[in-house]
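Supplementary Note 3. Input sequence used for the single-chain structure prediction.
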Amino acid sequence: MNERPKVLVVYYTQTGQLKRIIDHVLAPLANSVDITYEELVPVQPFPFPWGKQQFYDTMPETVQDTPRGIQPLKVDVNAHFDLVLLAYQPWFLSPSQPTAAFLQSEAAARLLKGKPVITLLGGRNMWLNAQERVKNYLHRMGANLVGNIVLVDKSPNLVSLITILRWAFKGKKEATRFLPQAGVQENEIVTSSRFAGPIATALETRKWESLHPQLMSLDAVELLPNLVLLENNGISAFRFWARFISAKGGPGAAARQGRVTMYRSLLLVGIFILTPITLFSSLIKLNLKRNELKREVDYYKGIGLR
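The predicted structure, written as discrete structure tokens, is reproduced below.
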């Protein structure tokens, strides 16, 4: 009798939303696949709900790839797995700190080398730079990225910003009279079970090159062109502020809190001003440089690394 395929799931979640997404994606495989879950646990936990100053003070190290450490993994790094599902959230247009800490670890290098990997993202709406960073990590350790699934909040950009900040700072996810529920829409989470079919086929046939096109046929990755431009502008600003703040010390340092407050004050103003401007400029670029922007969208929707 053939052994059941073995799948390792590596994830970090503060709110539980990402774990719910994982559970729905993998539910149809429960009776045919052995699944091992490895939750990443920071040595010094991140709070939820967040304190506002602490939240913004977390940005520099997130953007600069100097994450807070995680506790040793429970899984045997020498164990065999047929597939690894790496589930994560973007923070500040970058991989969450626990995800980055994992990907920088020797344990990850041993677990992921030569393994097919599917990335599964659950977040607001901007994930391109985070995924590029993850792809680079995977490439350097010799992992084989075979698929990507992205579930995002499909509310308008500014609406999703308001609801996610309300959830992050007050712990209130539910809809109000004027605002929708925060986070990935419930229907998106529930229907994510549709991705199990192609994953099951790939595990059976080992034809990993066919997996991402099959996932894409099920709308695994959707991307609005204006978000490409908005995120490119955003990550440049984050990198500047990360350098500016960290020049005054490490996380929580009193000397840098004035700069954190300055960044915190300007960020929301910048977003509310830049979002309509970028939407307008993307419409212009879509008309003037349609092929160039389409190539960018197609690239980010894929799993290749340039």
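DSSP finds 13 helices and seven strands in the chain. The mean pLDDT is 93.
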